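QA checklist item 7 of 12: single-chain prediction sanity check.
[x] sequence parsed
[x] length recorded as 286
[x] structure emitted
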Amino acid sequence: MSYAVRLSEFAPAPDEARVAELVARARKAAPKNENAQVWKACLGAIDLTTLSVTDSDRSVGEFAGRAARFALEHPGLPAPASVCVYPVFVDVVALALGSSPIAITSVAGGFPSSQTFIEVKMLEAAMAVESGADEVDVVISVGELMDGEVDRMGGTLELLREEVGEETVLKVILETGALGTPERIRDAALVAMMAGADFVKTSTGKIDVAATPEAVVVMCEAVRDFYERTGRKVGVKVAGGVRTPAEASLYYTIVEQLLGREWLGPKLFRIGASGLLDNLVEALEQ
């Protein structure tokens, strides 16, 4: 597939003035979504994440065990959507979660930089699924996109889509803080969706600029355009630096305004976070 050619079939990225206008509109409306109903929805959308250099079998097992006990410890509140870890810990999470309906998410494909051999990316993704991952998060090659090599970038994502299989949810991380401009973010999102992504995701959380309202606006515009032209709904995952209930409400509002309430369940909306869960629970149980 020629991704470079197909990009011209879609609407151009919104300019910075339009992005600023849409963010301002969402900020104005967001306080109305600072309520228990929305915060419960955000709880159920969390990919509870630990991606630390200090992760170990013990620490990850305890982390996942806490997620498994969430429903018992907080009756009436939805449990997180998934637990997200490095691929080597997928089997540890599976053991800790037991029969819990919480999904297992694994990063793969040379996370967080995507700077490794394609064969390594494919093997890592396949091994994550074989170990029990329900969902796999991979990173685009940012350098390829910035050099205009969108066909090469998209081809790699196609191979990873094939490797994980259609039954596994594939989330593609754009690393929007590195891409910088609406045009690059739009191109990255569209190529990822054309290559088969089930979600487009903002960030790895491993560089200085993580999720921003501006990037999510551009992503949502691309998702809407893609849906209108193909009929396929792709989800949005906000990850990196989302910690407070107010921040969660703002991102919820952006998705609500640009894509509609049908996008606000965990099948199409996720928040990658760790500390957010505790802060939402505190706000809900006050």
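[x] summary fact logged: The chain has a mean pLDDT of 97.
[ ] second reviewer sign-off
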